[in-house]
Amino acid sequence: MELRIEQGRPQDETGRLPKEIRCYDLLDLLGIPFRRIDHEALYTMEACEEVDGAAGVVMCKNLFLCNRQKTDFYLLLMPGDKPFKTKELSGQIGSARLSFADAEYMERFLDITPGSVSVLGLMNDKEHRVRLLIDEDVLNAGEFGCHPCVNTSSLCMKTSDMVDKFLPAVDHGYTTVVLTGEA
């Protein structure tokens, strides 16, 4: 597939979902510049590799997790190429028996569907049901990549803009975690 990097939101927003347009509206309102790559739907980190190469940034792996009782929900941002081990995370956040949360919670709390999980979905979490966890490697990177709540576009922006502008605007903090990906 041929990938083109565009600056900012699309000129023609015909056919784009309202939740994607809301992402662009908020980023524009906050003065957060971003690069955008439109592409076919991507469902796995492996499928993101070509986009990563074109963008010059590793897309974040965004995992939507919950505890066994399905009372606590977490959005984990980590480098896409780092293996995820639940046991390693559980101890750091004091929540045993983490698992992937059902799609119904993802849609209810973040207005996103599987394959489109993104930190930008926190703009829809008005009840603060989701706790954001960010791996230190993501925080230490100058830029990161994510979807605008749909998996047919990818955005690249400064990590500092996410932390210093976006998260305060959507009234969400974050917890730094240190993941090695080792057993």
Walkthrough of the structure:
The protein is α+β, with helices and mostly antiparallel strands and about 180 residues long. It has one domain: YbaK/aminoacyl-tRNA synthetase-associated domain (YbaK protein). The chain contains 6 helices and 9 strands, in the order βαβαββαβαβαββαβ. The model has no long low-confidence stretch (mean pLDDT about 90).
Question: Residue share in helices?
Answer: 25-40%
Global morphology? globular
Low-confidence stretches: none
The CATH architecture is Alpha-Beta Complex
CATH C-level category: Alpha Beta
DSSP strand content:
15-25%
Question: What structural category characterises the helix and strand content?
Answer: alpha+beta
CATH topology: YbaK protein
Labels describing this entry:
YbaK protein; 5-stranded mixed β-sheet; globular; 183 residues; alpha+beta
Q: Helices and strands in order, then pairings?
A:
Layout: E1 5-7, H1 18-29, E2 35-38, H2 45-55, E3 60-66, E4 73-79, H3 86-93, E5 99-100, H4 103-110, E6 130-135, H5 136-140, E7 143-146, E8 153-158, H6 159-169, E9 175-177
Parallel strand pairs: 4-6, 6-9
Antiparallel strand pairs: 1-2, 2-8, 3-4, 3-5, 7-8
Pfam families: tRNA_edit (PF04073)
Organism: [Clostridium] aminophilum
Domain YbaK/aminoacyl-tRNA synthetase-associated: 39-164
